[in-house]
Input
Amino acid sequence: MNRTAFFIATGSELINFKVNQYAPLFSEKLKDHGIHLKGEITVGDDLADIKKALIFALKNYGLIISCGGLGPTFDDLTRRAFSEVLGIKLVRSKKIASFLKRKYRLAALPPNMTDQRLVMKGAELFQNDNGTAFGQAVSAKGRTIILLPGPRNEWEPMWGKSVKKFLAGKFRSKKTGSERFKIADMKEMEVQKILNPLMERHKNAGYTVLAGPNICEFSFRTAEKKQALKIKKEIQRALREKIYGYGTETLEGNLGKALRKRGKTLAAAESCTGGLLSSLITDVPGSSDYFKGGVNAYSNAAKMEVLGVKKATLKKSGSVSVECASEMAERARTLFKTDYAVSVTGIAGPGGGTPQKPVGLVYFGLASEGGTLVFKKNFRGGRKFIKNCSANTALFLALKLIKCGEGVRRKA
Amino acid sequence: MNRTAFFIATGSELINFKVNQYAPLFSEKLKDHGIHLKGEITVGDDLADIKKALIFALKNYGLIISCGGLGPTFDDLTRRAFSEVLGIKLVRSKKIASFLKRKYRLAALPPNMTDQRLVMKGAELFQNDNGTAFGQAVSAKGRTIILLPGPRNEWEPMWGKSVKKFLAGKFRSKKTGSERFKIADMKEMEVQKILNPLMERHKNAGYTVLAGPNICEFSFRTAEKKQALKIKKEIQRALREKIYGYGTETLEGNLGKALRKRGKTLAAAESCTGGLLSSLITDVPGSSDYFKGGVNAYSNAAKMEVLGVKKATLKKSGSVSVECASEMAERARTLFKTDYAVSVTGIAGPGGGTPQKPVGLVYFGLASEGGTLVFKKNFRGGRKFIKNCSANTALFLALKLIKCGEGVRRKA
Output
């Protein structure tokens, strides 16, 4: 059985100005049926382009799902394109006509609804509880073809209510195992160096690495539940505490959970991240429960006068130093009266670097009752990338230390 | 000349969990060259799928652009797939090798960079200022094919610097007039209500509205330069000071320019934006020249103890009020010793709303020598959207007032 799927999105707006969010949504849903979404194509409201896309999909993949172009307007061309390519006549469905008449309390269908009755002959129909376009499915040319309406609030309930059942009948489900690891403080290359040889020993598993600013995601998938558990354990042993979460978890979300669980509070003192670290922390709903605030000390004057870093420290060590990072964290902890405070000070560039303190050099401080730890990192990239690397690293270090225990040693 | 284009995005993450934002971005850029983006296909990091996608595109469209899969890792397969389908050998580019060695100060390329030299024989190369993967372009089978790296901060500067020039040479551009307006403090609907009737009077012009968090982009395009000037003037008259910039200008960039031009400095006091406003301001290279810092006062204690808002104010009016916004801005201006200070305080949600002060209610303050102005807005949406609306609005109000003159009245 061909367990590959391909997605066709139709709608000129998806080419011109609207972001297309279909693929990840359908990919996730199809995994439940052991079906692998191999790709998606987006075309405008253009009969020839829709037909070309369908011909391509039919040639290569087992299940074809399309979204959009089932509305009653002139540019809704999906039914016609599919019927012409598949060689299946469009017929009028009495079932749909009477459903629409009942739903909208009409004696007869108005002109703008008459096309909504059209279905491919022999199609299985999926009722639409939130719109006028029914979904439909046919088998042709050895493929399964499903047409769904475009708006998410129409196709998603339809999926849960009827498409799922239809697929379960067609594609007897296989048990599959998968996991997505969220990794921080490692480069994509370092992750691959460790995990590629590990994954090569598991011939049947597929995997992906996705790199972000000093964070990574590693996902794998295999047909066997047992093998999946084994792989998961091996990866955990290989990456250890660099794994900060799973699935859709985030650094800021998990940091929030760790603080909430322990009933602790946090403050921030930022220089080169300029507010980004605090902004990430406050992206989490309810973060005001544990995050009390921060100071963005973007000038030496602000570091001294608002945050209270000693003039002597700045004079002797400079603002990008172990000493300054340490004092920034300690001062923020005192000012905001929190259990923990995290600090970031570095050079985001493109200007401001020197041979001794190059662009990308960043110090992190974490102050707690037990003392203050300072870390040093070097990042490479543009200004925004270094800002993001720095903010993610600050979140990760705070999360790790808060989880590891409160009795933090004095200076690292 | 075949002026149709097709886009190929590669990367398993775009199928599995990451939203694909390419099509609208490229559609817009191609319009400058009179090229019509007809569709896009996304495939995972799978050699066979990438090849199928390319074969499909070659059959149907004149210009093929791909993004992604040029990185140095095992799952970066684009070069190989294209070389195999097009029948063009991959060769090692000395130019790229010496560029990378110079850039990263290396005596020899490390193993993880050796693939970055590979280019299709005879390809035109596009230098990457923000990464290791060069772009490349070839002509084959009567088509023009361009390969670009995936990250937007890599391909977008590359586009402006070299791809544009390459396309202008290949596709002799029709003389067209166009403009992109950057608009703030208006909803997409409000922009359309004003500009749709205006544009309907210009039959030959096409236009697009792109909505963001309390900001909008409006682009139009026409075949005649003269008509374009006329349309531009009409739009300027219709939207007036809501237009904050043109082309690729940003709110934070233009705010920086306005401050720099006047030799003035800025500080921020944030509550519901939690650092996002300061982070946007400091995304601009050189912003430390005029931005001195800010306080993220995420709790009432921080508002009082760090920022110095009066207890009586919080008790009487609450933290989301004209009075609090006003004091926050004034206190930040004093603390950071700046010419201006901007404040934001509101309810980002999802919790914390009341019938009197619902989620999305936000106050903005701008303090200057001449006094303090306060503005009130209501936004609708999720937490991150409200944060972004608030930060953009704060930037816009600050920009507008700083440009309008220093003699700011006392309280609005």
In short: Residues 406-412 of chain A have pLDDT under 50 and may be disordered. The domain at 254-404 of chain A is CATH 3.90.950.20 (Maf protein). The CA atoms of residues 325 and 346 of chain A lie 9 Å apart. Chain A has 14 helices and 17 strands.
